[in-house]
Amino acid sequence: MSVSEPQSGLIAVESLLGHVFVNRDLLRAALTHASADGADNYERLEFLGDRVLGLAVADLLYETFPDEVEGPLAKRLAALVQRSVLADIAAKMDLGESIALSAAERAAGGRENENILADTLEALLGALYRDAGYPACAALVRRLWEDRVRADVAPPEDPKTALQEWTQGRGLGLPIYTLAGRAGPDHAPVFTIQVDVSGYAPVQGSGSSRSRAEKAAAGNLLKILRGEGG
Questions:
Q1: Cα–Cα distances in Å, from 47 out to 33, 76, 87, 124?
Q2: Which residues are catalytic?
Q3: In terms of C-beta density within 10 A (0-12 exposed, 13-18 middle, 19 or more buried), how is residue 109 classed?
């Protein structure tokens, strides 16, 4: 008897995860977007998986950088669990092809949507935790994140935090971020954010979300303030 398409998709994801689920309903839910099923979807598992991911990455950082104190470790953690990183990992796993979406969501580019990909990966970690416990999740996170953890010799700098520290250290108050524009289709928007700091010309930055655009704007202004450009 040939394997049905849904069954084949589940097996493919199990192969990616390196785990055969005892409770396949967990796996199905983790791969189901709310547009396809308003009740039995990945949202609860995503909530759980987000917490599991944070613990697993923190544990990996604690092991990898034994001499670092809390501040640098926290910066590394924030950089490694941001949605863009999760979406990139999910895309490299080709998870988009296995997500159950409504026809409208598929047409809108849901299989490539950064938020959906990140949410699905978190939901899969939640499902794995419920089915096999924390050690299985920690092993998967190590396999998927270890190269990224070891790639950065120095803790990553968040440009918004760095800009805020720069302005407050000079008595200039907080940077002000405003939406300057939005372009592109709903499934692939481009946001433009303007950042204003007292006494300096406003600077803009763009990104696929408001958060990424704010970081881009902050980074562009920091380059100017530090004499690296402009």
A1: 14, 21, 16, 11
A2: 50, 122
A3: middle
According to CATH, the topology of domain 159-225 is Double Stranded RNA Binding Domain (3.30.160)
- Collapsing DSSP to helix, strand or coil, 32 comes out as strand
For residue 215, the surrounding DSSP H or E stretch is helix 210-225
Half-sphere exposure of residue 189, counting CA atoms within 13 Å on the CB side?
12
pTM, 2 dp: 0.73
Task: Indicate the fold that domain 5-151 takes in CATH.
Answer: Ribonuclease iii, N-terminal Endonuclease Domain; Chain A (1.10.1520)
Question: For residue 206, what are its two tokens?
Answer: 């763009």
Residue 125: CB atoms within 10 Å: 27
Decide: helix, strand or coil at residue 36. Answer: coil
Q: In what order do the strands lie in the sheet with 203-207?
A: 176-183, 190-196, 203-207
Provide the residue-wise pLDDT of the chain in tens; the chain has 230 residues.
233 345 567 999 999 999 999 999 999 999 999 999 888 999 999 999 999 999 999 999 999 999 999 988 998 998 899 988 999 999 999 999 999 999 999 998 989 999 999 999 999 999 999 999 999 999 999 999 999 998 876 677 788 888 998 998 899 889 999 999 998 887 778 999 999 999 999 999 998 889 889 989 999 999 898 875 44
Give me the residue spans of the domains in the chain. 5-151, 159-225
